[in-house]
Amino acid sequence: MTQEIAQGTADLENEDRLRLSVSLVTQGGHQFYTLTIVSNVLARTCKVTTRKEDPKKGFQRELDRKRAEEIARYIDQENGTIPNSIVLSAQPEANLKIVGRGKTLEFTDTPGAFLILDGQHRVYGFSLAKTLLRVPVVIYNGLSRKEETRLFIDINTKQRPVPSQLLLDIKHLADIESESEETLRTIFDLFDNKKRSVLRGYMSPAEASKNKLTRVTFNQALKANLVLFSGRDPDEVYDILNAYFVAIRSEIEKKSDEFLLNKPVVFRAFMGIFKNVAQRMVDRFGGEYTPSNFQHIISPIFQNMRINKLEKPGTSWSKLQDYLEKRLVSKLTL
User: Fold this and answer.
1) Same structural domain, 74 and 203
2) How far apart are CA 93 and CA 17, in angstroms?
3) Are 323 and 309 in contact (CB under 8 A)?
4) Where among 132, 158, 184 does a domain terminate?
5) Is pTM, for the whole model, over 0.85?
6) What is the structure's pLDDT at 333?
7) Domain membership of residue 265 as a residue range
């Protein structure tokens, strides 16, 4: 019996043995095989051992079906490609053998033949997808459970993911931004580049930087307020927010030599109270969003306030927001 499985034709000695062309790689004291396997074969031969299923020997995290469904949709509906190799450890059930002068790998096509060391959600997603893919695979053989666990730890700690702020910075290049992401990116760039921007010099578009605002922090702070700017273009949003930040800076300068708005916790807290501040602006000034009008609204917050609340704000922006909101309300005068 013959069956097309990978590079060339895979000869089967019987219906539950598969033969695939492989390359042997030696790396860091270990040897492994590289090959490609059709996604449905992976789905039926791989297993995952979780801490919940096996508290003594398990080391994998539990599978997230939602994440696997997203992968399946990406494959079926977006004609997606996932070139990253799945990393497997052959189990005794595989009865792994190398034949054909070391160029062919043979194993038993049975559930549990391989333990997944990396790529469990991709394999799960492949199993849910209707489309069959040829998937790059790395297979280790003869590992102990200790060695499997160490490899799992190495793979998941030594490989650094792409920073989320960099992904936000380049999404528009791939033409995959949502409408809100595009708006937030444009506003961020205005604050980063305009000469009169209060935040100019305190923005970090593509990487984390101490005492600078990343796109992630900026987006999280502004996203909840976007509904307030319905119908306004990014330049108008920039003008209003910059006036707000000018007012905050002016009040801070009365108490501290530090800028302080570049601290992510402080920035998010002041953006957290922006809705209440804006409502008072409309009520009192009819929507004339000038720095002096903003300062008139927020100045009571700073009356008798110990500036170390902002200089050393801790790690919770929501607690600082609550503190600022209470002062905004308690100092309100008619």
Assistant:
1) no
2) 11
3) yes
4) 158
5) no
6) 52
7) 164-330
pLDDT lower than 50: segments of the chain: 1-14, 51, 55-56, 58-59, 332, 334
The reply to whether 322 and 178 lie within a common domain is yes
Same domain flag for 304 and 214: yes
Task: Walk across the sheet containing 114-118 and list its strands.
Answer: 23-27, 30-38, 134-140, 86-90, 114-118, 46-47
Query: Do residues 123 and 43 lie in contact, with contact meaning Cβ atoms separated by under 8 Å?
Result: yes
Residue 166: per-residue pLDDT: 59
How many Cα atoms are found within 13 Å in the side-chain-facing hemisphere of 317? Answer: 16
Q: Write down which residue in 139, 158, 177 finishes a domain.
A: 158
Q: Which two tokens stand for residue 180?
A: 């809100």
- One-character DSSP codes across 46-90: EE--BTTT-TTT--BPPP-HHHHHHHHHHHHHS-----SPEEEEE
Tokens describing residue 249: 């800076």
Do 102 and 197 fall within a single domain?
no
- 139 and 169 share a domain? no
Paired tokens of 116: 């997944």
Write out the two tokens for 292.
Answer: 């002096």
- pLDDT at position 1: 27
Q: Two tokens at 232?
A: 């306004």
Of the candidates 248, 268, 272, 255, which has an alpha carbon nearest to the alpha carbon of residue 311? 255
- What is the DSSP secondary structure assignment for residue 112, as one 8-state letter? T
